[in-house]
Amino acid sequence: MAKKNIELIKKAGIDIKVLLKKLIDAASAEFTTYYYYTILRAYTTGLEGESLKEIVEDARLEDRNHFEALTPRIYELGGSLPKDIRKFADRASCMDAYLPDEPTVKNILKVLLDAERCAVGVYTDICNYTHGKDPRTYELSAAILHEETEHEAWFEELLTGNPSGHFKRSQPGVSPYVSKFIQNK
Predict the structure, then answer these.
(1) What residues are designated binding site?
(2) Which of 36, 41, 55, 179 is the most buried (most CB within 10 A)?
């Protein structure tokens, strides 16, 4: 636990319990999204699905990276992840990205887009809560927000056919904004 950092954050007006709840719920959403995207990626089949598979893989791996980057910050602030995976999954700040009953490429894209839109809202909220008061958490959340916004644009482009400015990453899971926060890279 980073005691001086916590003291300064509290002095700036942040309620540490509220912040930890937001971060743990966000970490849970990233963890469960990684799981569900694994299933969704498996169902991106056929000619149309094959072109989508790498993009789903990129978002999936970057969501895992988001979880890996959030976890140390949770512990630095004196929090911890729940010991029970079921309780942890139930805390997700976003709905589960279930495989649709009819797993067509279009329906899978709708699930992916909804999940990314929720994530954009989560990190916008954390950024707004920490802006000017907790620079470390703000910078981490802003980096994740950049990637989640790109994921949203990718899936919206694929669903609507309108250009988003999406360019292929050098390889899936690069996390150009979040990679500096991941301790194992």
Answers:
(1) 30, 66, 116, 148, 151
(2) 55
What mean pLDDT is predicted for residues 56-83? Answer: 96
Q: Please write down the long-range contacts of 162-169, taking CB distance under 8 Å and 24 or more positions apart.
A: 168/54, 169/58
- Taking only the tens place, the pLDDT of each residue in 95-133 is 999 999 999 999 999 999 999 999 999 999 999 999 999
Amino acid at position 157, single letter? E
What ranges do the domains of the chain cover? Answer: 3-181
What residues are designated binding site for Fe cation? 30, 66, 116, 148, 151
Residue range 1-56, pLDDT digits in tens: 679 999 999 999 999 999 999 999 999 999 999 999 999 999 999 888 888 898 99
Q: Which CATH superfamily is domain 3-181 in?
A: Ferritin, core subunit, four-helix bundle (1.20.1260.10)
pTM of the complete model beyond 0.90: yes
DSSP 61-107: HHHHHHHHHHHHHHHHTT----SSHHHHHHT-SS---PPPSS--HHH
Listed in sequence order, the residues at least 6 apart from 162 whose beta carbon sits closer than 8 Å to its beta carbon are 156
Q: What SS3 class is residue 28?
A: helix
Contact by Cβ (8 Å): 110, 66:
no
